[in-house]
Structure formats: structure tokens, C-alpha cells
Design goal:
Elements lengths: L2 E6 L12 E7 L3 H13 L3 E5 L13 H10 L5 E8 L5 H18 L3 E6 L2 H8 L10 E4 L5 H7 L5 E5 L10 H4 L5 E3 L9 H12 L4 H13 L6
Helix pairs in contact: 2-3
The structure holds zinc ion (ZN).
Length: 231
């Protein structure tokens, strides 16, 4: 079994800890994470980086962050953009939208995959997505996805969308996993120690009644990491 954690954070690098995990996408939440993640990637080739500012931390943004972020992204074409998004449970939605758009535009400009955090703000995300030509949109990973079927259907209209599943797989109250196409599924811990990726994958294989899903999910993750071009 080969597993890549599609979404973790700096304090929980899965490939060091969980069996069968051969890679991990380490998502920044604020600018102070960026250097730590770069150092980690330099030391450990199994670690992939996503750089950005999380919607919970838009107040941490300092002047010129966008220039510094773009310069950093340009140093390595494998660097992704994330964790970025919108969260209705957190304050300052106007600023969240402003910061999200700056980073999303950057992902498009530099052709990078995006790790997306969206809680209760899909209407706003769809509104933003509609402002772009579909063909220009980047690869998007909707992280910790557990939304209603209407949101899923709308998202599936976009070709380069993936859904990463973590702790919700273990309950899957909404039967969401069944409805996500196999070639769109990824797995993640989101830095949570209680989420054992092997268990998540076995649960997904059971729901899908397909052992081959484990390989498919691995290949899906490579697609995200390589922007659609598997080397
Ligand atoms: Zn996260």
C-alpha cells in the first residue's frame, strides 16, 4: 500500500509517523510557516509544500505578503498554493474574500494546484469561480470534504477538482464518499493524529467495494502534485 497524505500541517508530518505513507502535502496556515516548510522540504523529499494564508489567519497578513508569496512560489514549480479559502464561522469575511482572491489569482497565474478550505461559504466560492474562464482554473483540492450533494454536483462541473477525505470517512454520515467519483478522491489527515490514513483508505475501499481504489487514490494524488502530468 502506498499512501500520500494530501493535506497535513507542519507539526504532523505523516510520512515520519504512519505506516505506508510515502509522501505528505504540508499546508501553510500563515506566513510564519513558509520558511519552516521550505526547510522541511529541503531535508525530506517526501514532503510537498503548499504556501499561503488560511482564512482563519487573515489578520496575520502583513504588507507585501503577496509579493513574498509569489517570489517563494517561483523558486520551485512544485510548490502549491494553500491552505486558502473561506470560513463563515470566522470573522472578517470581506477580508477573507480579498486575501483568498489574491492567492487564487496567483495560483492561476503560476499554474499551481490549490488546497482549498471552505466551510459554509460555497455560494461565495462558486460566485468567485464563475468570474473565471473554466479553462483557466487551477487544480483544486477541496479539503475535508463533507458537503451536501448539491455542492458536490456543482463542484463536479469543474474538471480539475479533487476531494480529500479524512476524519469524515470514518463516519461518512452523508454517504458522500459513495457519490464522489473514484478518480476525484484523495485522503488526508489535516494534521490530526487520530486519523490513520490506512484506516481511511480501507473504509473507502469498503464503501466503494473496490480494492483497486487504493491505487487510484495514489495516482489521483500524483496528478494533483504534478498539475495533471504524471512524470
Ligand atoms: Zn488544514
Amino acid at each position: 500500500m502506498k499512501i500520500i497524505d494530501a493535506h497535513t500541517h507542519i507539526d504532523y508530518i505523516t510520512c515520519d509517523i504512519q505506516p505506508d505513507v510515502v509522501g505528505a502535502v504540508c499546508c501553510a496556515t500563515m506566513e510564519s510557516d513558509w520558511k519552516k516548510i521550505v526547510d522541511l522540504i529541503d531535508k525530506d523529499k517526501r514532503v510537498y509544500g503548499a504556501f499561503g494564508v488560511h482564512p482563519w489567519f487573515v489578520d496575520s497578513v502583513e504588507q507585501g505578503f503577496d509579493v513574498r508569496m509569489e517570489n517563494l512560489l517561483k523558486t520551485d514549480s512544485n510548490y502549491m498554493v494553500g491552505e486558502i479559502g473561506l470560513d463563515k464561522h470566522k470573522p472578517n469575511m470581506e477580508k477573507q474574500i480579498e486575501i483568498f482572491k489574491i492567492q487564487f489569482d496567483m495560483a492561476i497565474k503560476l499554474n499551481r494546484s490549490v488546497c482549498l478550505h471552505c466551510v459554509g461559504a460555497w455560494d461565495k466560492i462558486f460566485y468567485i469561480l464563475k468570474q473565471y474562464n473554466k479553462l483557466d482554473l487551477p487544480t483544486i483540492v477541496a479539503h475535508d470534504f463533507n458537503e451536501n450533494v448539491d455542492v458536490l454536483k456543482q463542484l463536479l462541473k469543474y474538471e480539475n477538482i479533487f476531494f480529500s477525505i479524512g476524519k469524515n470517512a470514518l463516519y461518512d454520515r452523508n454517504n458522500r464518499i459513495e457519490q464522489i467519483p473514484n478518480d476525484k478522491l484523495l485522503v488526508e489527515t489535516d494534521g490530526k493524529k487520530e486519523v490513520v490514513l490506512k484506516d481511511v483508505l480501507l473504509k473507502i475501499a469498503q464503501i466503494k467495494n473496490d480494492e483497486n481504489i487504493l491505487n487510484i487514490i495514489y495516482e489521483n494524488t500524483l496528478k494533483v502534485l504534478n498539475h495533471g502530468q504524471i512524470a
